[in-house]
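Aim 2 progress update. The chain analyzed this quarter is reproduced below.
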Amino acid sequence: MPKHGFLTPKAISNRIKAKGLQKLRWYCQMCEKQCRDENGFKCHLTSESHQRQLLLVAENPFKYTDQFSREFLANFLDVLRKQFGTRRVLANSVYQSYISDRNHLHMNSTRWMSLGSLCKWLGREGICKVDETSRGWHIAYVDRDPATIERQNRMRKKEKLDMDDEEKTAKFIEQQVARAATESLSAEPVYTELVREGEDEKIQFCLDTKIQPTLSQPILPMVENPLKSSSKHKDTPKLKSHGRESSEAPQSKRPRISALDEIKFREEKRREMQNRCEHWLHKGIVVKISTKVLGDKYFEKKGVIVDLEDKFIALVRMLDSGDVLKMDQLYLETVIPNIGREVLIVNGANRGSKGKIVKVCPESFSVDVEVLDGVLTGIEVKGLEFEDVSKLHKE
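Predicted structure tokens:
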């Protein structure tokens, strides 16, 4: 019997019936064919093409099931990520959005027999946050994109730095207030009797014009200048007899830096600019993992760098489990040991030199290190930041 023409009523009726979703029980996933009624589906099952496809699937059924499962999961998560983001949403709403595509891959051809089993599997794998309510299963997508994780780490690091600066400022103000209170209590005026030995002797007064700060004044305590304090303790006869010397004392300046100290300062600054780099990874140092991307098993655990793939990628062997991980410098932190332990200076002017911890300053996040090798052997370097020093591993 010849087919109906394209614009005949029968052809138009068939196209209207084929629009939209059809019944799932009349769909063949192996052949990807949708039948409109039971009779058509029965005829398809007995067709030669279906029997041939059935023999191919029977040879390795797990291969096709895994392939269908991967395609279904990728399309389902794509709909969840693009339409709903990381919001908590009803799983059935996501599934309805997914099956609105007429050519979607059906769930009954995958490893999951129901939407509930799919939600449980997503929760176990950590892909989504899953919870069950009276309305059904709710899911929330967990975004593990490297760009997103890096952006979140940068935001957390910035917040931590801002918080550290605020804590430092508050602590400094507290120290200044305590110092002002101590000076105000200790610097009490001493009253003496006015005595004149002879009638012809002149009476002289030596007044301290510096204002002593009190707790009621909203100003910071003034640190006394040692040059001025030394001139204040000179003999009184010298002050009254030599007015020129007393007038020159306040004009005294700070001692000038010697030429040798200036050369040392310039050389240190040049070495700092030359050796300061963005990368600080070195073999043999102990580092700490600062990310939860690999799970709670490795979070804040220590390991030793056994090899470097490039300037920013290192192979880290965990100290507790012995596992070897490939980590980026962004997810690693330096480790500061106790006083007297050996460290490696990983950045700055003395980059690559071994040293020994002399002092740890948690307030300023810095350490003092005694250099053990190189041209600066035996010299103590002060004020090295925690990021520039890391513990050396010993077998």
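The radius of gyration is 40 Å. Confidence is low (pLDDT under 50) at residues 213-220, 230-252. These observations will guide the mutagenesis experiments scheduled for the next reporting period.
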